[in-house]
Amino acid sequence: EAQLVESGGALVQPGGSLSLSCSASGFTFSRTPMSWVRQAPGKGLEWVSDINTGGDDTYYADSVRGRFTISRDDAKGTLYLRMNSLRPEDTAVYYCAAGEYFENWGPGTQVTVSS
């Protein structure tokens, strides 16, 4: 059974940085495209970023491009999201999702950007 567990969420000041991790198990991580998706309070799900198998192709929502960086370590079965220049509007629960069609999700980790 596929399992995903996010970590690294925290309260951070505007302009600050944070790194999220997503530990994967129960499936062949190295052969699975991965994504980050977020949900802000009172809003719907927003796709944030994708990374292909191998990690050489990455994609970002316009709202985070240039500030966030997605990466993966296939040897560790871990997905990462490095977030710089954080803004209050980045406040959300961040989820990692596995598969081309987001077949499996983690429980999420809370990121709060506030002074």
Task: Describe the structure concisely for a colleague.
This protein has 115 residues and is mainly beta. 0% of the residues lie in helices and 50% in strands. The strands form 2 sheets. Strands 2, 4, 5, 6, 9, 10 and 11 form a 7-stranded mixed beta sheet that branches. A 4-stranded antiparallel beta sheet has the order 1-3-8-7, with no helix packed on it.
Layout of strands and helices, then pairs:
Layout: E1 3-7, E2 11-12, E3 18-25, E4 34-39, E5 45-51, E6 58-60, E7 68-73, E8 78-83, E9 92-98, E10 104-105, E11 109-113
Parallel strand pairs: 2-11
Antiparallel strand pairs: 1-3, 3-8, 4-5, 4-9, 5-6, 7-8, 9-10, 9-11
The separation of the N and C termini measures 40 Å
Number of helices: 0
Order of helices and strands: EEEEEEEEEEE
- Portion of residues in beta strands equals over 45%
Low-confidence stretches: none
Describe the structure.
The chain is an all-beta fold. It contains no helices and eleven strands. Strands 2, 4, 5, 6, 9, 10 and 11 form a seven-stranded mixed β-sheet that branches. A four-stranded antiparallel β-sheet has the order 1-3-8-7, with no helix packed on it. The chain is globular, with a radius of gyration of 13 Å.
Features:
single chain; four-stranded antiparallel beta sheet; mainly beta; 115 residues; seven-stranded mixed beta sheet; 11 strands
